[in-house]
Amino acid sequence: MSESKDTHVATDTAPQDQKFVYDFTEGNKDLKGLLGGKGANLAEMTNLGLPVPPGFTITSEACKVYLATGTEPAALRDEVGAHLDALERKMGKKLGQADDPLLVSVRSGAKFSMPGMMDTVLNIGLSDKSVAGLAKQSGDERFAWDSYRRLIQMFGKTVLGVDGDLFEEALDDAKRAKKAATDIDLDAADLKKLVKQFKKIVSRDAGRDFPQDPREQMDLAIRSVFESWNTDRAKLYRRQERIPGDLGTAVNICSMVFGNLGPDSGTGVAFTRDPASGHQGVYGDYLQNAQGEDVVAGIRNTVPLADLETIDKTSYDRLMRIMEVLETHYRDLCDIEFTIERGELWMLQTRVGKRTAGAAFRIATQLVDQGLIDEAEALQRVNGSQLAQLMFPRFDHGAKTELLGRGIAASPGAAVGKAVFDSYTAVKWSRSGERVILIRRETNPDDLDGMIAAEGILTSRGGKTSHAAVVARGMGKTCVCGAEELEVDTKRRRMTVGRTVVEEGDIVSVDGSTGKVYLGEVPVVPSPVVEYFEGRMHAGADDADELVEAVHRMMAYADRRRRLRVRANADNAEDALRARRFGAQGIGLCRTEHMFLGERRAMVEKLILADTDDEREQALKTLLPYQKKDFVELFEAMDGLPVTVRLLDPPLHEFLPDITELSVRVALAESRKDHNENDLRLLQAVHKLHEQNPMLGLRGVRLGLVIPGLFAMQVRAIAEAAAERKHAKGDPRAEIMIPLVGTVQELEIVRDEAEQVIAEVRKSTGIDLRLSLGTMIELPRAALTAGQIAEAAEFFSFGTNDLTQTVWGFSRDDVEASFFTAYLEKGIFGVSPFETIDMDGVGELVRGACEAGRRTRPDLKLGVCGEHGGDPESVHFFHKVGLDYVSCSPFRIPVARLEAGRAAAEPDGRGDTR
Amino acid sequence: MSESKDTHVATDTAPQDQKFVYDFTEGNKDLKGLLGGKGANLAEMTNLGLPVPPGFTITSEACKVYLATGTEPAALRDEVGAHLDALERKMGKKLGQADDPLLVSVRSGAKFSMPGMMDTVLNIGLSDKSVAGLAKQSGDERFAWDSYRRLIQMFGKTVLGVDGDLFEEALDDAKRAKKAATDIDLDAADLKKLVKQFKKIVSRDAGRDFPQDPREQMDLAIRSVFESWNTDRAKLYRRQERIPGDLGTAVNICSMVFGNLGPDSGTGVAFTRDPASGHQGVYGDYLQNAQGEDVVAGIRNTVPLADLETIDKTSYDRLMRIMEVLETHYRDLCDIEFTIERGELWMLQTRVGKRTAGAAFRIATQLVDQGLIDEAEALQRVNGSQLAQLMFPRFDHGAKTELLGRGIAASPGAAVGKAVFDSYTAVKWSRSGERVILIRRETNPDDLDGMIAAEGILTSRGGKTSHAAVVARGMGKTCVCGAEELEVDTKRRRMTVGRTVVEEGDIVSVDGSTGKVYLGEVPVVPSPVVEYFEGRMHAGADDADELVEAVHRMMAYADRRRRLRVRANADNAEDALRARRFGAQGIGLCRTEHMFLGERRAMVEKLILADTDDEREQALKTLLPYQKKDFVELFEAMDGLPVTVRLLDPPLHEFLPDITELSVRVALAESRKDHNENDLRLLQAVHKLHEQNPMLGLRGVRLGLVIPGLFAMQVRAIAEAAAERKHAKGDPRAEIMIPLVGTVQELEIVRDEAEQVIAEVRKSTGIDLRLSLGTMIELPRAALTAGQIAEAAEFFSFGTNDLTQTVWGFSRDDVEASFFTAYLEKGIFGVSPFETIDMDGVGELVRGACEAGRRTRPDLKLGVCGEHGGDPESVHFFHKVGLDYVSCSPFRIPVARLEAGRAAAEPDGRGDTR
């Protein structure tokens, strides 16, 4: 959670006595702020009695002083000296001692792991003198000179700022001269020569000699770690990850141990259980006679950790015991780095290990069963993003594939079907049982039927917030968008990729998790988790797998704890029923404009083109029964649960052809003297309704106030549908929602009209109706005047999509392509504010509106129906500001349920607002 | 000020003992909240010992009780009874007494005068019995029956809700039967018959008889006044004028006096000084033997008030003395209604009188000279709207004119010139000394040169916030827009209005104050006030007129008191110099995009079409010297004063052709096989840059972050220009302003880049430069995170135009035409939020951002550069929230100065923020 990064509390960062250096025996794992993650865990292991090479940690407080003043704190030099003395006593040798040098590593280690900072300088303490001592002590002259060579190279590059290529070139020259394939083939004499050259490079490029004084080496390395906090890359990373810029980094000084001193030495990594499955067992890799960097470089192949048992049974048994200790102690999967130096096992690092989504769920429940953690803690061990990952079907990784191209992974999943290039064909083919992939340059609301009918959507234009991407994510449907290599030709019903032509009917496979598009059918593995939510697989049943059991239990933990209710955004009975299966407790947003499309478009066109009151009333009368039927079905599907119906929102020209297309058509027709009265009339209407900025134009409540009878028709349809359901002994719970309200006066006028219509329906049907009426809060002004608006609204539903657009002043249709990428790269956004709610800006408005609204009307119902309702971090925020519910697309409901439970289970999750 | 309406304080509204009726002797002029304006002034005059017909006032508190509970307060009937008794004793006759009836009028009178409420019922107390008594007492039977007829008609219509047409039809029938031209020709017998008919109409239509009990008449009339508070028209008016809906109205019961009892009677209106010029003297009208309603009906001609001296010297002298008393007492021009009944003078009403703008200034200074008011109070007697009116030239009202059509009065003034239909011709002709009127269907930024060159602008499309209107108002240039009768044909260079064709070169006259458009030249009277501000006429000079003297003095009062500084929005040296003459203390907004138009468009096109870094850098390099030259001129014009330069703001496609126009052109050319490479390339660029909602797209700081080098070029131009001016011993004070910032990270990146460029210029020129850097606050998010943004900004300039658009979620280009009119009609807006700042919404953000910004940076400079900076009410708001300056178009500067002074001179104007 980046949230915890934002709200770092100074409990463990600034002790009163300003002690700047902690021996490994003095710290513990809860001092990450002060000692960094690496230092805190080294201290924790030391205190557990595990074999950690002795050492000490310089606190991030010292770094802060350095960054603020440009010099180390006055006391630091002496403190480091005292700890170094102690270390030397403990190790029985002095840093850089000529005959038997103590060598140390200097490593950065901040509270949050952070690429871009100086990582490590090994072998500090080597010099022209001590290199001989190391050779003697190790009995390996080549090893000693290679270690020295590495020190000068690493130190020169990272501490003295020498161009690293200079060292590489010298090394290459040496290998060429020796006709050596790798540097392993260089002997001690070669390396001695190389050391000489490296020292020259340092003197020339850094303007100073490589320091021979070991303490000076150490001090310069420490300072260099401090300074690396502020490299451009580190700053960029912090901006992107929202890590505060003033935390500073700790520095770890650790005595060196060597895994490359012969066959009785080696190095390895291990996990306390399988990070892929969560199963307990022996997982890891081992490399004999090697150092950690060799494992990373992949020069030789590692062996499975289990083989260590035969190589070095004592160390193996010892490691197994240590791993048990660590897992019990950390109460979680740990990953470990270790080195064996001549039969002696040393622990170099441990931390709570990363794992796959599936393993996260399994491990959490396993740990509950082992009694190591309780249910609330188990909830903190998983998250909604992981659950979402588990819900998508996947392509079989083993299958043979033919890659066509690659776009943006807009909505995950694996879809296979016949290529179709228009909605009509998509619907027709899918009705006859074909699976289809809808391929378009870009989609628009007209493609909705086709998108519903298709297995997946593929576009050659648009980004992660394009229409295709947003709608597909909303439907939980696989989508790859902006695959620019594809040339889509909708007229000829085909697309071209390089020399490959894909015709209508050819089979394609679309991977929404990777953005890859394949020709032909790639086999798909279905998600058992979705089978479970859909009710086709049951936890506890014989065929249920472990993962489903774990998910089932975690969902139960979450549902028991959460205070937020979870509703669905659904516009028809089918979606509503699915949402119900997924656990929806109502519908938070039914968009009535989706009921105006398809075959009803002609009626809507009549409404828009109406010249007289009569024509308009006639058009509305024609629409009424259709609307009513929609609502009857919806209320039946959600019987007994609240259904929030939003009155018509989008600008009317969305129901008409595009102005440029139509203008060109008409101009061309005219140039052929080919008059088309209907087109001309349409063009006139399109011109009249054309807006420079339709998002900021005539829509929402403004339509309702300007077009007489429009909202009244919709309210009548809702009221009559509710009456019909009541008559049929149903339990309809309709809530009427007015979009785009900016001022209470708008709402008052619409409310008065609605109440009159409802009274009429009550009278004409004889059925006692109670419909609640509320508003979207989706304009900054609505949020700012929420106290006034609450006087006329029984509920608020925050439309955080539009609110994000107006608060930031950008339209999602436009900005992603033009500058979102640049903004993410520059770290201006950590994450798109359309994905996770912008807490400082949009969130402040939401928080303020909640408070003001409840001051006016204490029982005001509060919810959110923007896409943020299904976003993990945002759900936590909504929990904290005290909403009653979140509403999201059906597919996101389990995620929202889980996250709502996690938010409530947090130690500070009791609904406080900051 | 509507503000005072909004913040009505209950000091004079709810006395503890709930006394519901006040005798005229008990009230005073400061009790307007309780007694209404009319009642308070009647009481004031009574207490001054002036001859007011005795009576009493029922408080608005009684009305509030009635409106809340549906019945009069329990005590009211008795209290009214007691006051009626006292009145009857005083008058020596009883209400409706058969032989000599006391008659009363019942009039509404709220705190704010309000059309739509029940106005007056006269002659209460007449009945079948008392009509004879009145006849006897007055010695005029016709008078008595006519009075009775009027009572039944008025009472029937307004109190009993009878359809007024029924009375009018009966009256017409009677006149037809008698062949009478007017009702004067009906005699007593006719009127008796009419009374009978009227009573029948009442019985039939109201379902009850006309009440014969005089007390019942009075009580019903009182209740009717109460109820008229909530008529639809009254509610609508209150919404529009932002008058709180819960004030209620008072009711005045006044004994009747009659001006129609013979030649020694009469009625009149008078002003204590000339409301048109402010001169002291005898101003008013008198009508012998008549009632007030006859004066209004205009049946007979009135005589000048001075003639009363010969008609009735005693009354005349008495009236003169009373007028002196009133003016001294009210310390202002009063208007008066009076009646003389058989030689006896009665005062029926007085109030502070309306006056022309010019008179307001003259009267204020005259009253200062007379020692009646001080300078601070004088400032409250005028306002910026009046000053603005005085600044526009006007057409000579006496001239003969030929009206062509009428549009929206978008920007006042009187302009005459030759019709031109494109900017090119406008500029060409104006250079050769012609005065031109630019006539377009609508304007866009390309027309700017033409608009500058033209005397006035006339469009056939667009409303008060269309491009033409906004830009013209900004320039202080006459504009009529949306004159829909005009068919503008730019291709043929002519327009048609009905059968009249106006060709290029024909002279037209455009009145921006009335929206009227004339054919031919209408003589224009210049504004001496502008001559004065321009320095072409001097206060104190021989030829200066009184008005200029008064304005000069009032401006001095304002300048002495104001705390807000006033800057100008100006984009070139010419505007800047004018602004300086008008009193600007700097430039608050220089829009650099205006420097990208005209002949430089080609360079900008190159910049946009640049495919490579080289091409882009070359394009920027070409633009640099032009930008620099602009700034040198500007800094020279504003030497010693701050100049805020805003970096490029608008979306790039504004510099390219319209997508639809270009698409049609290309399609037509293609259909003719007529390829145009340049058009095709342009079309590609236009498509790439096309945005659904350009206002919410790639513009402002986003451009600066996405197009490498763009902002750096602009900053370099500013810095080099400043260096050049410094080198020439000038005192340039440049401030660099970043537009459309939403988050502090954007600002930090731009600031770092700017600082680097400035350092380079400092180094290359050797001149010590100090440029301050700040940001527009024009997005809600900028305002919400102002505390963070202030860390990187030395100043904030609120862009309240854009802020209004995003806070409300509407684009000014789109919404006025589509729904602003409806919103104003429905009272959702009292005034467009683009004219006067929306204090509850936009204003709250401004207030919060000021506070948060100053918390971070106490010396943060705060200003506003939206159009609100020149709006009177908004200036008061900006004073209250503690801005340092407002910036507005040069022409509005005197208005802003005056209003800033007025705000500071208000009793509570010491800068408190609520």
Automatic annotation (TrEMBL), chains A, B:
Residues 34-71, 76-301, 309-358 form the Pyruvate phosphate dikinase AMP/ATP-binding domain. Gene3D superfamilies: 1.20.80.30, ATP-grasp fold, A domain, ATP-grasp fold, B domain, Phosphoenolpyruvate-binding domains, Phosphohistidine domain, Pyruvate Phosphate Dikinase, domain 2. Belongs to the PEP-utilizing enzyme family. InterPro entries: ATP_grasp_subdomain_1, PEP-util_enz_mobile_dom, PEP_util_AS, PEP_util_C, Phosphohistidine_dom_sf, PPDK_AMP/ATP-bd, Pyruvate_phosphate_dikinase, Pyrv/PenolPyrv_kinase-like_dom. Its EC number is 2.7.9.1. Substrate binds at residues 591, 646, 778, 799-802. Mg(2+) binds at residues 778, 802. It comes from the Bacteria. Residues 549-900 form the PEP-utilising enzyme C-terminal domain. It catalyses: pyruvate + phosphate + ATP = phosphoenolpyruvate + AMP + diphosphate + H(+). Pfam families: PEP-utilizers (PF00391), PEP-utilizers_C (PF02896), PPDK_N (PF01326). This is Pyruvate, phosphate dikinase. Keywords: ATP-binding, Kinase, Magnesium, Metal-binding, Nucleotide-binding, Pyruvate, Transferase. Its cofactor is Mg(2+). The keyword ATP-binding applies. It comes from Streptomyces niveus. GO terms for molecular function: ATP binding; kinase activity; metal ion binding; pyruvate, phosphate dikinase activity. Residues 434-515 form the PEP-utilising enzyme mobile domain. The active site is at residues 467, 865. The keyword Metal-binding applies. It is an enzyme of class 2 (transferase).
